[in-house]
């Protein structure tokens, strides 16, 4: 059975949609495609590939806890995986842009970080088999 449905965008909530969108613009080299007072859509520059991201202001936003430490913690609903060529350099750049490294780092070829709103995301690099 065929469907005309297509996933177009991943939306992240934050206390300030514009602030979080600006972080991901710097991190990914994306451009603003649309914006409203409480919502921003960013994506790759025209002619390049990639997934669009949107950000929505949610006044009652509570950052997730990763890894979950105790019952009742706000659980992570999803995370972004961002492939990079140079893991150490891109980790340093992400931190300079406002990310913070997670306390727990589960793999050598992945760096788990938290964006300024507290969403976990992973920088990863392909390692030779």
CATH topology of the largest domain: 2,3-Dihydroxybiphenyl 1,2-Dioxygenase, domain 1
- Widest beta sheet: strand line-up: 1-4-3-2
Tell me about the largest β-sheet: 4 strands, mixed
Helix/strand structural class: alpha/beta
Strand content: 25-35%
Overall geometry? globular
The number of domains is 2
The CATH architecture term of the largest domain is Roll
Radius of gyration over C-alpha positions, nearest whole angstrom: 16 Å
Number of helices: 2
Number of strands: 8
Query: Low-confidence stretches at least 5 residues in length (pLDDT < 50)?
Result: none
- Can you identify the CATH superfamily of the largest domain? 2,3-Dihydroxybiphenyl 1,2-Dioxygenase, domain 1
**How far is the first residue's CA from the last residue's CA?**
37 Å
User: What fraction, in percent, of the residue positions are helical?
Assistant: 10-25%
- Spell the H/E element sequence: EHEEEEHEEE
What is the averaged pLDDT score? 91
Report the top-level CATH class of the largest domain: Alpha Beta
Explain what this protein looks like in three dimensions:
The chain is an alpha/beta fold and about 130 residues long. The chain has two domains: about 1-60, 2,3-Dihydroxybiphenyl 1,2-Dioxygenase, domain 1 (Roll), CATH 3.10.180.10; about 65-129, 2,3-Dihydroxybiphenyl 1,2-Dioxygenase, domain 1. About 20% of the residues lie in helices and about 30% in strands. It contains two helices and eight strands, in the order βαββββαβββ. The chain has helices at about 15-30, 85-95; strands at about 10-15, 30-35, 40-45, 50-55, 80-85, 100, 110-115, 120-125. It has a four-stranded mixed beta sheet with strand order 1-4-3-2, covered by helices on one side. Strands 5-8-7-6 form a four-stranded mixed beta sheet, covered by helices on one side. A hairpin with an 8-residue loop joins strand 6 (about 100) and strand 7. The mean pLDDT is about 90.
